[in-house]
Amino acid sequence: MPAMWSERAKDTMMRCAQAVGMQEVVVVLEPEAASLCVQNQQGAQVKPGDVVLVLDCGGGTVDLVTHDVQADGTVKELAAGSGDCCGGSYVDAAFLELMERKYRAIYTDWVTSKPKDVLKLRKYWLAAKIIFGSGGKTKRALITLPTSLQAALEKAGKVDEDDEDLELSEAEMKSIFDPIVDRILKLTEEQYQASARRPTKLLLVGGFAGSPYLQQRVKAAFGGRVEAVVVPPTPGAAVVKGAVIYGLNPRVVASRIARRTYGTDVAVPFAPSSHNEKHKYYDKEEEDFWAKQVFSVYVQAGIHVSYDQVVTKSFRVGSSDQAGMIVRFFSCPHPNPVHVDEPGVREEGVVRVQVPGTGRQRSVKVVMKFGRAQIQASATNEDGERMETTLTFAGTGSSQAAAPRACRIRRDERERSTDVSSTTCELCAQTHPEPITYHSMVTLDSVPSQCSTDWWL
């Protein structure tokens, strides 16, 4: 998958793959796969000790990552993956926009009436696109026109009767390529500067990497700053071949840099110097002031996490009569969040687990596993019951353990009554007649996924 994809996009792709019967799906990021492919080629130009900046230019996305190649053949990230939507298809779109600017209503009417011929025009454009800049030279381009478009332009007096080709000047061709290529070079410069060590090789791969003009611009910008700009013989196939290598041994990517800070929300004793006053409340059982919605950090953005690195924490229940615990997982782009309602923090997943018995000392062990392209999380009670989820997109997790909060009750938190004989859910508008017992430490947003007497308070 593209390195720039959000966790939500990755999860969508995973679930689509599983929906068609792919039970064991391993996620590898495209620039990682390309790096592995080139390292494993005969006469490889990338060897142990190299710091490789991978520039994967595909049709839709451009993805970058920087790897430190180890002596054992594994790689470690030196800069977190980055990217943007500025691949080769955006150059194609720029060509079509140029056609619309040149011929206006004639072209737009033709597009509407001759959709099949538009595909022919795209094909003819690609033939010119893939040779622009070949031999180190940029020059005018001749693009064959579909017969129907030629006739429409001839009728309007835009071309001569004998003109079967559209001629685009060198300046026009550069006006099509340069806005996209400039964005790619900017991304590459940002990745180059972000690396903990200066790259020694730049690996250019992906379908758009076959463009002579793109290669020319990349070499002009970085050729004097790295030992070599490496372009494989078939740059478009590097990702597919590398994905197979990764699938056979996922541990070949020994460590990645955490893109975001991950953790859970907890309640802790209130500290005036750290916590926001709006999260302060009085805990009757503890007979002290506590702070709620505190971000308990498991891993910080920007640090290295090894393959299958595990972080484990234990959390006590919020009240002596609490029947279950809902564990919510959060992420944010900066390394030191304090509360989970700060700007940039988003909920990534949720699990709920029963907590048998009574008493305030009961606990749940919450585990997060890092270092892969996705993050796994689980919660286990003292009886060994374990619920798990995959943190893959904002909102909820992807496993059956996830509990979307479809029914929610809000009450003034200053009210500390213990028994409520009748309460109306503000979302489903139903009245729940069963008595509800809750404690001040419990966040009343944390309720079961469905309206029932199975209260998780």
Q: Topology, please?
A:
Elements: H1 7-19, H2 30-39, E1 51-57, E2 62-69, E3 75-84, H3 88-113, H4 115-129, E4 141-144, H5 147-155, E5 165-168, H6 170-194, E6 201-205, H7 212-222, E7 228-230, H8 238-248, E8 253-257, E9 261-269, E10 280-283, E11 288-299, E12 304-306, E13 309-316, E14 324-332, E15 346-354, E16 363-370, E17 375-381, E18 386-391, E19 419-420, E20 423-424, E21 431-432, E22 436-437
Parallel strand pairs: 1-6, 3-8, 6-7
Antiparallel strand pairs: 1-2, 2-3, 4-5, 8-12, 9-11, 9-14, 10-11, 13-16, 14-15, 16-17, 17-18, 19-22, 20-21
Keywords, separated by commas or semicolons:
elongated; Nucleotidyltransferase, domain 5; disordered C terminus; 5-stranded antiparallel beta sheet; Substrate Binding Domain Of DNAk, Chain A, domain 1; 3 domains; 8 helices; 457 residues; alpha+beta; 7-stranded mixed beta sheet
The shape, in one word, is elongated
What is the assigned CATH homologous superfamily of the largest domain?
ATPase, nucleotide binding domain
- Global structural class: alpha+beta
Radius of gyration based on Cα positions: 28 Å
- Distance N to C terminus: 40 Å
Strand order of the largest sheet: 7-6-1-2-3-8-12
How much β-strand is present in the residues? 25-35%
Helical stretch tally: 8
- What is the number of domains? 3
Averaged pLDDT: 82
What report would you give on this structure?
The chain is an alpha+beta fold and 457 residues long. It folds into three domains: 7-86 and 178-257, ATPase, nucleotide binding domain (Nucleotidyltransferase, domain 5, 2-Layer Sandwich), CATH 3.30.420; 88-176; 261-404, Substrate Binding Domain Of DNAk, Chain A, domain 1, CATH 2.60.34.10. Helices cover 26% and strands 28% of the residues. It has eight helices and 22 strands. It has helices at 7-19, 30-39, 88-113, 115-129, 147-155, 170-194, 212-222, 238-248; strands at residues 51-57, 62-69, 75-84, 141-144, 165-168, 201-205, 228-230, 253-257, 261-269, 280-283, 288-299, 304-306, 309-316, 324-332, 346-354, 363-370, 375-381, 386-391, 419-420, 423-424, 431-432, 436-437. The strands form six sheets. The protein has a seven-stranded mixed sheet with strand order 7-6-1-2-3-8-12, sandwiched between helices. Strands 10-11-9-14-15 form a five-stranded antiparallel sheet, with no helix packed on it. Strand 1 and strand 2 (62-69) form a beta hairpin. The longest helix has 26 residues, at 88-113. The radius of gyration is 28 Å and the shape is elongated. The relative contact order is 0.11. Residues 392-457 have low confidence and may be disordered.
